[in-house]
Design a protein that fits this description.
The protein is mainly alpha-helical. The protein has a domain at 33-279. 64% of the residues lie in helices and 2% in strands. The protein has helices spanning 3-31, 39-53, 63-86, 103-114, 124-127, 130-160, 170-196, 223-232, 253-277, 281-308, 331-344, 359-370, 381-401, 414-438, 442-445, 452-467, 482-511, 528-562, and strands at 206-209, 215-218, 406-407, 410-411. A two-stranded antiparallel ribbon has the order 1-2. Strands 3-4 form a two-stranded antiparallel ribbon. Helix 6 packs parallel to helix 17 (482-511), helix 11 runs parallel beside helix 12 and helix 12 (359-370) runs antiparallel to helix 18 (528-562).
């Protein structure tokens, strides 16, 4: 660890925090239908889109109608992505002559990009045509992110409104999110990436001769536009298989910093959007503080583990600090920060190979996902996951003081607690269930690169990433098999939609309730005591659920490393 490394981490967090307030307030104005700086230009476009689609922007939906509209829209997106992959060989914008994607891989990829997971069992530059990259994958990067944000806005309205029946209009929220938030930021981000040297073209691949005289094919394509939205929308699907460690995709330290910033920018700012919409920004800052406390602890531990490295290297005359699998131009600090940021969000991009991290360094990204990716989480999904944890936390607080739990004046009763717990328990069912089966089957074991606890960590990471809708991977694992494509697709579907459905049931229940004025016995939810309780509840639930599995994987590997055991 170095002072320079810590300084880079501190600067990153300070810049992120400084941007939370203006962006959070801007998004609140957008979703409340207020005038913004972009309204003179984009409002006519918004109205035109409603007319074209036949949407009545003044008509709001009940939580059931809202959820059905979301599911129908996502099902249509899945069908489009699947079809484009299967027929890409006969479609235009395919200069490299990519063949049709296999059915099981096309299924996995379609589920992945529709659910905002962006897990990739393929190399983008060797599998997907330009048309598939643009019309299927980049489009889903926008609308899957917009879906998550729209859903959390519906939940926020449920807390903000009293004795109401509706939570908004899905089509309006989807349109406003894409038009006013994601599209402007993505255009700006793409232009910056092009300036930094990221390709943005539809030209054919280029053959080059290396200094050694060997032939090398350099892939091209509309990369900057996809990379910008993949980071902003916490998608993470790389244009190239090695993702943001590829110089084409992440060419400079500045591009590395800006991409890391964009990964957490919207999820962090949504906490202040929440505070603004419930008319108490202190509530938003409390959630941001809880997220930040766990995030910074994770970054510190990961950075320490990677800097401490593997002392067994010293016997080989090597520096024990772990630079394996990392880009020299980014170093240990930025690799550790990216690894924690991308798994704290539901963003599968990497600028270093997590499979090469030390056991404890690789454990932190796993933990970040196993907590439900609520630190800061995916765009929208992180905040609604955190609000479900809040419901559990205030329920625990109510039990301790003998009062009916309440949050923002809404009584939290049995239905809300049951639905919150149902959404929370869906994740470990697939994060732990599928690995338990996979390590017992020959075709599950055959995909592991390594034996021993690290091999188990590879499988655990795979299903954790897919169920949490993250998309990153331990790089040494072979996931493009019928078993892993199919079960991974199922895990992504349940991890996304079987959290959303009970969450929307909570929204429907809360929006109909009256707001009860605060009294002397009301537990304040904007101070340090509540932040500590919330952090404690999150860590206790995560620890009780996942520690046994972690003990078999990264923890066992760490102690094996200390005893110089190899597998």
């Amino acid at each position: 660890m170095t002072a320079n490394g810590w300084l880079q981490i501190i600067v990153y967090f300070v810049v992120l925090t400084a941007l939370v307030l203006p962006l959070g307030r801007f998004m609140a104005r957008v979703f409340e239908g207020e005038r913004t700086l972009l309204s003179p230009v984009l409002r006519p476009v918004e109205i035109g889109l409603y007319r074209l689609a036949g949407v009545d922007a003044t008509r709001e939906q009940h939580c059931i109608s809202y959820t059905i509209a979301m599911l129908v829209f996502n099902a249509a997106g899945f069908a489009l992505v699947y079809a484009l992959q299967r027929f890409q060989a006969v479609l235009p914008l395919n200069p490299a002559g990519m063949s049709a994607v296999a059915p099981d891989l096309a299924f996995n990829t379609a589920v992945s990009f529709t659910s905002n997971t962006n897990w990739q069992n393929y190399g983008g530059e060797s599998t997907m045509s330009y048309l598939t990259q643009m019309a299927a994958l980049t489009t889903q990067n926008f609308v899957s992110a917009a879906t998550g944000i729209a859903l959390v806005i519906a939940l926020v309205r449920a807390f903000a409104r009293t004795s109401a029946k509706t939570v908004g209009n899905f089509w309006v929220d989807l349109t406003r999110c894409t038009l006013y938030v994601l599209l402007p930021l993505a255009v700006l981000g793409a232009l910056v990436l092009v300036w930094q040297g990221v390709p943005q073209n539809i030209g054919p691949y280029v053959d080059a001769t290396t200094l050694e005289g060997a032939k090398q094919t350099l892939s091209q394509g509309p990369a900057a536009s996809q990379i910008a939205i993949k980071q902003l929308g916490t998608n993470g699907g790389g244009f190239w298989s090695a993702n943001s460690s590829v110089p084409y995709e992440n060419p400079t330290p500045l591009s590395n910093f800006l991409q890391m910033l964009s990964i957490l920018l919207i999820p962090a700012a949504l906490t202040l959007t929440f505070g603004r919409m419930v008319r108490d920004e202190r509530q938003g800052w409390a959630l941001y503080a809880a997220m930040s406390a766990i995030f910074l602890a994770g970054v510190a531990l990961c950075y320490w583990a990677e800097s401490y490295g593997n002392t067994n290297f010293a016997a080989l005359g090597l520096d024990p600090a772990n630079m394996e699998g990392k880009e020299v131009r980014f170093g240990i600090a930025n690799s550790s920060l990216w690894a924690v940021a991308t798994t704290a969000a539901s963003n599968g991009s990497v600028n270093a190979m997590h499979d090469s991290f030390t056991p404890l360094g690789g454990m932190i990204p796993i933990i970040m996902m196993q907590l439900g990716e609520i630190i800061y989480g995916g765009v929208g999904s992180g905040l609604y996951g955190m609000l479900l944890m809040v419901i559990v936390a205030v329920f625990v607080a109510g039990l301790m003081v003998g009062r009916t739990p309440e949050y923002l004046g809404k009584k939290i009763e049995a239905k809300e607690v049951k639905m919150a717990l149902l959404a929370i328990l869906v994740l470990p069912l697939f994060m732990l269930g599928f690995p338990a089966v996979a390590v017992l089957l020959p075709f599950g074991l055959s995909s592991m690169q390594d034996a021993g606890p690290h091999g188990f960590s590879e499988v655990l990471y795979l299903y954790t990433s897919q169920t949490a809708n993250n998309g990153s991977a331990f790089a040494g694992f072979t996931g493009n098999t019928l078993w892993y494509n199919t079960t991974g697709g199922i895990a992504m579907l349940f991890g996304r939609y079987f959290v959303i459905i009970p969450m929307m049931a909570v929204a429907g229940s809360l929006v109909a309730k009256k707001t009860v004025p605060a009294s002397a016995g009301t537990f304040p939810t904007h101070g340090g005591l509540f932040v500590g309780l919330l952090v404690g509840v999150i860590l206790i639930i995560g620890g009780l659920t996942f520690f046994p599995a972690l003990a078999l994987g990264p923890v066992a590997e760490h102690f094996a490393m200390l005893t110089k055991s190899t597998f």
